[in-house]
Amino acid sequence: MSLLPHADAYVFDIDGTLLVTKDLVHWNALHQAMLEAYGVDATIEGIQYHGMTDLSILRAAMDRAGISGRAFEAGLPKALSVVCREVENNRRGIMPRVCAGVPGLLQRLKNHEKLLGVASGNLETVGWHKIEAAGLRGFFSFGFFSDQCESRAGIFRNALDHVYAQLGNNARICFIGDTPSDVAAAREIGASIVAVASGTFGIEELSACSPDLCISDCAGLLAAD
Q: N or C: which end of the chain has fewer CB atoms below 10 A?
């Protein structure tokens, strides 16, 4: 895979990078969380949530509804619990489409004994259920999510620290994501980043963020081997 930056570990975003979901399981869970935790019948309609973490999506939706500061923070533990509960209860309704080239790329990296993980703005329960529904769980040995970290850069940094703990401080890590937020997060922690235009953002938008590599989808990485 000569196009890929050489690394000892590869860490993938989920939505738009590994898979795309058109079902409403996650969407409905966020809606139910806002109802139960804040008493607000609101949705995330109109929020530019691609690249945002679940915590920041909830914060934006509630801020728009007039709930912020201490009131938002007070309801957050319950909101996160409701999101996880709803996704757990409705997990059979998750119907992901795996992005082009992903299974082949993951298998190739696994064959080369690379450490594979995920770093996602999803809550952990949400992220793993999506990956399991897509049949990809067996490829990944670790994952970091937004349960305890609202910042995407913080999530990426947690993944970086985990790789260092597993492989040593000289280990090389490469992130793969589909949004400008992924590129910015990797840059903030000094890591390599491959941007794939398999989600919402096109190649021109992603290239403008100056990732190490920008490509249409993971199939292009596989074809380059």
A: C
Tokens matching residue 35: 């109802």
Q: What is the pLDDT of residues 133-190, one digit of tens each?
A: 999 999 999 999 999 899 999 999 999 999 999 999 999 999 999 999 999 999 999 9
Coil, strand, or helix at residue 84?
A: helix
Residues paired with 96 in a beta bridge: 21
Cα-Cα end-to-end distance for the chain:
4
C-alpha span between 213 and 196 (Å, rounded)? 8
Angstrom CA distances, 119 to 32, 33, 159, 186, 204, stand at: 25, 23, 7, 11, 24
- Provide the edge-to-edge strand list for the sheet that holds 213-215: 142-144, 115-119, 9-12, 173-177, 192-196, 213-215
Alpha helices in the chain (DSSP H): 25-38, 54-64, 69-89, 102-111, 124-133, 152-167, 180-188, 203-207, 218-223
For the record, the structure tokens of 114 come out as: 């690379």
